[in-house]
């Protein structure tokens, strides 16, 4: 197996693993927030072109067990319509990730995460009934964010959570859509040459921390109130945005 990147110091690796655990914790409790927490910090530590495939791989592997239940409960037609937008959005996002300067990508990730943080804090939700053109548009926007930075969740959540769809179907829709989006992103990352040898040791190193975070987050769901933990997740996202600012690289490293 290829070794870890030579410039990854023990302190940097420790911070990466801790960040991965916290990202898994947020994902396990709330169903979102992992990439919003992981990407700003990990992009500063290992670069966005390594960070994005790492979170994609470990999330895909550790959440695969959610698919059968979601497939049974989801409105599969609605998920398919949104996935049509992702077919366009994901390749566009991957193109940006592979062709823009890494520092530009990092600033873009910070800007996207900050904007989505504001969206989540505002509590805004789309309260109308889902319409096919709008659903496709949300899928395209989510796919663009996913392909470029793995932060495609909030547009979908804001769109589906506020509508007239029953909560259990909404959750199943979100899980199933993210799995479709993940499959599309995996394919486009492969075509874009983002699966480099260094991903294997990085994924194997961080996956246990992510899985532990998922497990702990799921257990915490029944202990802390949803309002309290939502606030904690949002605070962690804000902290990750600040820590991930390029001018603070010397502190992180």
Q: Which terms summarize this structure?
A:
globular, 0% strand, single chain, mainly alpha, 253 residues
Q: Level of helix content?
A: over 70%
Radius of gyration computed on alpha carbons: 17 Å
Content of β-strand: under 5%
* Strand-pairing-aware structural class: mainly alpha
Q: Choose one word for the global shape.
A: globular
Parts with pLDDT < 50 across at least 5 consecutive residues: none
Q: What's the order of the H and E elements?
A: HHHHHHHHHHHH
Mean pLDDT: 86
The overall strand count is 0
Largest sheet report: none
Would you write up a description of this structure?
- It comes from Pleomorphomonas carboxyditropha.
- It is a multi-pass membrane protein.
- Its main location: membrane.
- Keywords: Cell membrane, Membrane, Transmembrane, Transmembrane helix, Transport.
- It is found in: Cell membrane.
- The mean pLDDT is 86.
- This protein is an all-alpha fold and 253 residues long.
- Helices cover 78% and strands 0% of the residues.
- The chain has one domain.
């Amino acid at each position: 197996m290829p070794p870890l990147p030579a410039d990854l110091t023990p302190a940097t690796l420790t911070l990466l693993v801790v960040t991965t655990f916290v990202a898994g914790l947020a994902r396990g409790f709330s169903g979102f927030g992992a990439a919003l927490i992981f990407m700003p910090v990990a992009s500063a530590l290992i670069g966005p072109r390594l960070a994005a495939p790492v979170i994609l791989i470990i999330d895909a592997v550790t959440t695969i067990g959610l698919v059968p239940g979601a497939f049974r409960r989801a409105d599969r037609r609605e998920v398919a319509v949104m996935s049509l937008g992702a077919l366009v959005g994901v390749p566009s996002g991957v193109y940006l990730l592979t062709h823009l300067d890494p520092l530009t990508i990092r600033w873009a990730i910070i800007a996207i995460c900050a904007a989505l943080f504001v969206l989540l804090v505002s509590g805004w939700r789309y309260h109308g009934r889902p319409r096919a053109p709008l659903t496709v548009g949300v899928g395209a926007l989510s796919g663009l964010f996913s392909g470029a930075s793995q932060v495609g969740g909030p547009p979908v959540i804001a769109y589906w959570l506020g509508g007239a769809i029953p909560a259990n179907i909404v959750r199943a829709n979100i899980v199933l859509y993210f799995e479709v989006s993940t499959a599309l992103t995996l394919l486009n990352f492969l075509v874009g040459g983002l699966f480099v040898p260094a991903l294997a040791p990085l994924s194997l190193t961080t996956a246990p921390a992510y899985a532990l975070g998922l497990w702990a987050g799921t257990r915490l769901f029944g202990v802390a109130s949803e309002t309290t933990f939502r606030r904690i997740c949002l605070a962690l996202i804000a902290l990750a945005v600040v820590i991930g600012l390029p001018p603070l690289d010397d502190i992180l490293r």
